[in-house]
Structures are given as structure tokens and as C-alpha cells.
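Convert to structure. Protein one:
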Amino acid sequence: IRTTLTRQRIERGSIDLDLPEPEVGLDDRGVPTRITTRLRLNSHRLIEEFMLAANQFVALNLHERGIPCIHRIHESPNPERLANFNEFIASFGLKVPSPVRSTDFPALLKKIQGRPEERVVNTLLLRTMKKAHYSEADPGHFCLGFPHYAHFTSPIRRYPDLILHRIVKKYLKRKCSPKEKKGLFSRLAEISEQSTQMEIQAMAIEREVIDLRRAQFMMDKIGKTFHGIITGVTGFGFFVELEEVFVEGLVKISSIMDDYYLFIEPEHRLIGQKRHRCFQIGDRVKVRVADVDLGRKQIDLVVLGQV
């Protein structure tokens, strides 16, 4: 069942980015003892497909009946970001058309499946996409390839889902009058905006907690060496995700003393002006933990070489 639903969804243009999420293990005192990637079993995927189907059905049913609701929407990528993404993947012989359709990205992901550049393309594709948010309008969900979509399946933890349950309950067996529709649409606009802002705050808090736990976990590992993958490049250095533990640290450009490095933003790389040494997103490197700052929740690394 799960594979059939997934296949049908991807054929319709749904983008299935299987990127790892952190799972922090704590001891009895609340001290982090391990940080690993969260397991995503077939049972999890099956439930996800059922939830997607239920969310889509409820949104479609309300749309057909002309009843306003809070939609979970996702707009197509910004043309400038898409152009930058195309410029990068061109080095792998890849390209997505512009204007892009939702079916173009699943086709791209299928091409790179199992290839060395799969992880980096997945990561950059995620950064190219706009953020999903709540809206009283109904332009569809680009990333899922659904013309109508809403959050319905988690009313105990998400307010938009609870509102949708109330709407379904109220209008399940009766029509929604034009006057009711006008008033409901106006209220949903305010609720959608507030729900989106609360979601942004919650995600920021979650990131802060994860960053703190990662820093705490690495406190006793200063001086140790690890292998990792460059996940992001900026003008002040590059971020490395360690392979042995699911932790990300920063290699400051000021710590690389062998050359003067320039940041080439469209190519997500740093290039040395004399030796032409290059650090690019997706490269494997060997690093040493130089320092851990709990206050800033930052792990400083020193690059020892490329792998």
C-alpha cells in the first residue's frame, strides 16, 4: 500500500526529500549521551502517506463545497533562486526548466538517485524551495503536487488542524451560507497569519535546543578528529556535518592559513587565490574540534585535509 501511494504521489509531482533529522539521547541527568539520525521506518512512511491522503481529501472536499478553510500552501520557487540552483547543478550535467513544474523536481531526484551528488543536490533543492505556510487562499501545494491541501490529522498539537475539525463538524451535514463564508474567510486570514508566525517561532526554538544539545555533547571532544561533509559555504567559512556523530560545526575562513580564500556564492565554494584549493558544498573533509562555545551554541572546527 505504502509504495503504491508513494509512487502515485511522486508521479503527480510530489517532491520526496528524505533528509535526516536529529535524535538526541539523554541520560537521567538530562545530559546528551548520543546524537543520531532519527529512524524513518516503513511503518512511519505508511502513516505519513495515510495522513497526506486524509489532509488532501478534507481540503478537496471543502473546496468542492465552497467552504473556506485554513490551507497549507507552498508556492513555486523564486526564479532567481531557481537560476542559481540550475547554475550549480549544471556542473553535474543537470537542469530543471523555467518556469518549473512540480513534476520536474521528482524527475531530477530520480536521475541523481544513488549518485555521489545526491545528498548535496537534495540539500540545495530544499534551500531553493520557498517555505510552506498557512493561508486562507488556496493556490495549492507545489512541493506535494496537490492542487488543494490542508492540515487536518493532528488537532491535539496544531491549532490549524483543530480549526479545520471545527469547520468540518459544523458544516458536515449542512450548507455554509454566503454570509457565513464571508465571515469565516476573514477570520481564517487572521488565524492563518498567527499560526504561521507561531510555527516559525517554534521551529526557531527547536533549532536552538538542538544546537545547545549538540554543543553540550561535543564539550568533551575538543581535540578529537572526525570526518564530515560540507553542508554550507559562506563568506566567513563553511559548515561541516560530522559522519561519526550527527553534529554540525563551523570551519572559520580565518582558521585556514594556507591561502586567501574568495567566496563564490553561486557555486557554493571557497577558492584559494594562490594554490586554487577549493572547499565546496558536498566535499568530504577531515576536521578537528577546536573549541565549543555553549553560550553561542557553536562548535568550531579546524580543517585538516580533504578526503
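Protein two, convert as well:
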Amino acid sequence: YVYLKGTTKKDNLFGLSGLKKWNDIVVVEGELDALHALVKGIENVVATSGGALTTELLQSAKEKGIKNVTLLLDNDKAGESFIKKSIEAAEQMGMTAFVATLTDAKDVDEFLKNHTGEELKSIIDKANTAYIYQLRKMIMEAIDEQGGEGGIIPDKNRVELKRKVI
């Protein structure tokens, strides 16, 4: 990535200055993801330039009145870890975080090579609140880690899951 002279990626949320509405943003990782979404008619997409959201990145968004952040980060291990950090940053800034998930593509750019902008908009519109996303993730991890069959969590592990959720 190349940044403006004298700046770093932690200083800029790519695409923030071109927003049409000042309430919600959709956050992707790469600039190409944001640009491809814009070309396909998706508004208010900004990019972290390859990482998690930080309070520094969100500061200028908050100053512009952004209240809701929908995370649509890459469908890989790094993206998963970025989601957790990004939720924490949004909450620290007093923003509401939502999480949208791509299931059949690594990132937005790849998704849009085989799908329409309307299909991407549908995924964004169906984003879960951060809390629902985190709860579903914990449940799936409990099932996977404990070998639960058919989506059932073994009795001995329900207590541990309940403790984590609380």
C-alpha cells in the first residue's frame, strides 16, 4: 500500500472523505475492496488499508457523525482477528458494530468478480450485531472443539460455554 506523503495507514480510513451519508459506514480491509464496491453501487464503504479498525482510524469518522460500523473484513484468519479488535475499537468510540460475513469469497473484491452489487448489499443488510456474531462464534467453537455431532454441544461443555457467554 502507498499512503500520502507524511502519513501512515493508521492515520487514514480510505474513502472516508467521499461518503454520501454521514451515519453508517461499511468497513473492508483493502482499498481495492472499497473501490470495487463503489463501482458496483455500494455507498459508504471505507477501507482500513489492510488491518483492524483502531480508535485512531475511527476518530475522524466519529467527528463526521458516524454512529454505526458494519465490518466486512476478509474471510481468513487475519480477518477474524481483525473483527474482534475492530469491535472493541468501535465500542470504545461509542459506536454500534455489526458484522457481515462472506462465505464464498476471501474478500469483497473476489466476491464482486462473481456476484452483483445487489448480492453484496444483501449481505451487508443482513449483518449481525457484534454481540450476536460473537455469541454464534462461541457456540460454533464449542461444537467444533468438543466434537459435538449435529450441532449439539455435549452436556459437559455447556457449563463452560455458559460461563464464557456470561
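The first strand starts at residue 24 and ends at 28. The chain has a mean pLDDT of 85.
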